[in-house]
């Protein structure tokens, strides 16, 4: 009798354990089989920056510009540099989404499907602030993915990534959502993406690939990993689909992204500040600086105010504010709740337009026309007065377009940069720029001074062909 009872308990334990495991570990084969055809491998070739990439990117920024040419091989010995990433098809007529850093600076972009079809891709537009890019291939009837609602994702939810880590085509990995709304500033210290953190195994080559929920919908675009070894250690970050859809729609429509702008410098609120400011607990974004003539100044926001709500969104940490403001269409009037001298205040602010880092230009891959951008491959214009005030510059010319493969691109210039000096001559106006460029010597390294995000930078530029 005891033996039978023991066997019964053993069988019951096995049944319960099996049921728990079945409920805890989802079946992923159908999801992966159905969605893999719409995931693509992206290969790029970069000729103009080949010599720079001979040095690991993490060390390039530490090399003074005056010495960079000594580390570059002669012109005739430069070799194309190949790179790779992942992406996914969002329309049957060939629109493909990937990361900006996958295609940035590329002279050739190739998209490969699971059935080994290959297409040359055109870069419709890129957005460095969200690290997103939209490509287009000439094809019809392509397999596509479905967008999901990233606002409904919960911590602990299962997610699946498909991509090409280390060039291993169409690999799948799974994990759970570890956290939501992670603030990770980019190289320019801007913070416009509330990243989804997961423990999915993401490695180099996965960048730009989709992150699926259990309904087979794309809820994120894999963008970054935190690592000390170069490989996955269980900390990966994806761009939320809700933000990506808006960026993709703008890139498709106009080749650029317009973001909301408030014009404040902010910091977090700690426990002591919360007590001093009359808050029950640390929360909100403390305004430490206000730009003259900005939407914040016009709305009556003051230094020392703590913004606790912007529109329909609570501002829990200071990193929440740029996430929210950046996604609001310029010109929109938004209610704001803030704390001032221990009392709650309400006001309205008309959101401005963030100066575009990429200058609003539409970028294209492939050989550049020699007629565009002149000797430097730069399309420039005078700086609008309102932009001068925002960036704190008084003179110069605004870079609106950078032609791949020419002198400006080789010097690392981007749309939105403001050129203040060429060679040893100051550039105050568009007329100055035109005169100076005409007399620049060919084949000599010359200094160039420009502003990016309000910060002055010196580099070198060389004209190799007229």
From TrEMBL:
Subcellular location: Periplasm
Function statement: Might be efficient in the degradation of transiently denatured and unfolded proteins which accumulate in the periplasm following stress conditions.
Organism: Microbulbifer bruguierae
Signal peptide: 1-22
Alphabetical list of InterPro entries matching this protein: PDZ, PDZ_sf, Pept_S1C_Do, Peptidase_S1_PA, Peptidase_S1C
KW Glycoprotein (keyword) present: no
Entry superkingdom: Bacteria
UniProt name for this protein: Probable periplasmic serine endoprotease DegP-like
Catalysed reactions, semicolon-separated: Acts on substrates that are at least partially unfolded. The cleavage site P1 residue is normally between a pair of hydrophobic residues, such as Val-|-Val
Keywords attached to this entry: Hydrolase, Periplasm, Protease, Repeat, Serine protease, Signal, Stress response
Pfam families xref list: PDZ_2 (PF13180), Trypsin_2 (PF13365)
Domain PDZ: 260-342, 374-454
Keyword Ligase: no
């Amino acid at each position: 009798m005891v033996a039978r009872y023991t066997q019964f308990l053993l069988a019951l334990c096995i049944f319960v354990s099996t049921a728990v495991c079945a409920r805890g570990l989802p079946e992923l084969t159908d999801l992966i089989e159905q969605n893999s055809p719409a995931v693509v491998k992206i290969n790029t070739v970069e000729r103009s920056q080949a010599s720079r990439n001979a040095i690991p990117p993490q060390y390039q920024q530490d090399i003074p510009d005056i010495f960079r040419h000594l580390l570059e091989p002669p012109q005739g010995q430069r070799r194309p540099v190949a790179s790779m990433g992942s992406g996914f098809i969002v329309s049957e007529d060939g629109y493909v989404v990937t990361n900006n850093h996958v295609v940035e600076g590329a002279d050739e972009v190739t998209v490969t499907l699971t059935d080994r079809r290959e297409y040359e891709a055109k870069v419709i537009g890129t957005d460095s602030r969200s690290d997103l890019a939209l490509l287009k291939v000439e094809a019809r009837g392509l397999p596509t993915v479905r967008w999901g609602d990233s606002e409904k994702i919960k911590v602990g939810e299962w997610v699946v990534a498909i991509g090409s880590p280390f060039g291993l085509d169409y690999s799948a990995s799974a994990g759970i959502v570890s956290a939501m709304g992670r603030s990770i500033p980019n190289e320019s210290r801007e913070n416009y993406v509330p990243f989804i953190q997961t423990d999915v195994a993401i490695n180099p080559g996965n960048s730009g690939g989709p992150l699926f929920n259990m309904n087979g919908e794309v809820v994120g675009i894999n963008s970054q990993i935190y690592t000390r070894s170069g490989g996955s250690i269980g900390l990966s970050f994806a761009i939320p689909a809700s933000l990506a859809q808006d960026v993709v729609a703008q890139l498709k429509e106009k080749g650029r992204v317009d973001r909301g702008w408030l014009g404040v410098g902010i910091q977090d609120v700690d426990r002591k500040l919360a007590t001093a400011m009359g808050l029950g607990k640390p929360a909100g974004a403390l305004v430490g600086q206000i730009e003259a003539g900005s939407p914040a100044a016009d709305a009556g926001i003051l230094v020392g105010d703590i913004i606790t709500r912007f529109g329909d969104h609570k501002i829990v940490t200071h990193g929440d504010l740029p996430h929210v403001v950046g996604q609001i269409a310029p010109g929109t009037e938004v209610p704001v709740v803030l704390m001032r001298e221990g009392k709650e205040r309400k006001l309205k602010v008309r959101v401005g337009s963030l100066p575009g880092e990429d200058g609003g230009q539409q970028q294209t891959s492939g050989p550049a026309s020699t007629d565009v951008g002149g000797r430097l491959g730069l399309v420039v214009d005078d700086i609008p007065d309102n932009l001068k005030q925002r960036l704190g510059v008084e003179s110069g010319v605004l870079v609106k377009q950078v032609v791949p493969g020419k002198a400006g691109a080789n010097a690392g210039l981007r749309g939105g940069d403001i050129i203040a000096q060429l060679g040893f001559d100051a550039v105050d106006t568009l007329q100055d720029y035109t005169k100076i460029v005409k007399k620049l010597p060919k084949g000599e390294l010359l200094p160039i001074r420009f502003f990016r995000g309000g910060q002055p930078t010196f580099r070198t530029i060389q004209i190799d062909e007229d």
